[in-house]
Amino acid sequence: MRRGLAAVAMMTGLAFGLMGCEGGGDPVEQALRDASAARQAAATPTTAEMEARRSASAPDQAYVEAAIQEHRAAIARAEASLRESSDPALRQLAQATIETRRAEIAALQAWKPTAAAGE
């Protein structure tokens, strides 16, 4: 009788031990899955965060687009000056304008809104 009770007690303890693990799997694997899910959740912005960033950067984005258009117009005028002018000083200024404005366009195109803008 004692052996029967001891066996039942062992089986009950084993059953309760397995119930502590979700799905009865390996607790180490479960901990790794939980940690991975937590890292993924922390790295993925929520929809509300994405909307806040988007709305906060709308004026900035409008500025960037307008500045790019202005720089392209300045490049077009400088290129026309290069084609039409024979004055060396004016041609040098036009070439410098083209190089400078192209660099500024590249910087504006590389711009990305920062999270700090929405905070």
Q: What is the chain-wise order of helices and strands? A: HHHHH
Query: What is the overall number of helices?
Result: 5
Whole-number mean pLDDT: 79
Q: Could you say which structural class the secondary elements and strand pairing correspond to?
A: mainly alpha
Percentage beta strand? under 5%
Identify the quaternary structure here. single chain
Rg, rounded, reads 33 Å
Shape: rod-shaped
Helix content: over 70%
Distance between the termini: 70 Å
Care to count the β-strands? Answer: 0
Q: Give the biggest beta sheet.
A: none
pLDDT < 50 stretches: 115-119
Helix/strand layout:
Blueprint: H1 2-19, H2 27-43, H3 47-56, H4 58-84, H5 88-110
Helix pairs in contact: 4-5
Which terms would index this structure?
rod-shaped; 119 residues; 0% strand; mainly alpha; 5 helices
Write a compact overview of the structure shown.
This protein is mostly helical. The protein has five helices and no strands.
Report on this structure.
It is a single chain. With 119 residues, the protein is an all-alpha fold. The protein contains 5 helices and no strands. It has helices at 2-19, 27-43, 47-56, 58-84, 88-110. It is rod-shaped and about 110 Å long. The N and C termini lie far apart (70 Å). Residues 115-119 have low confidence and may be disordered.
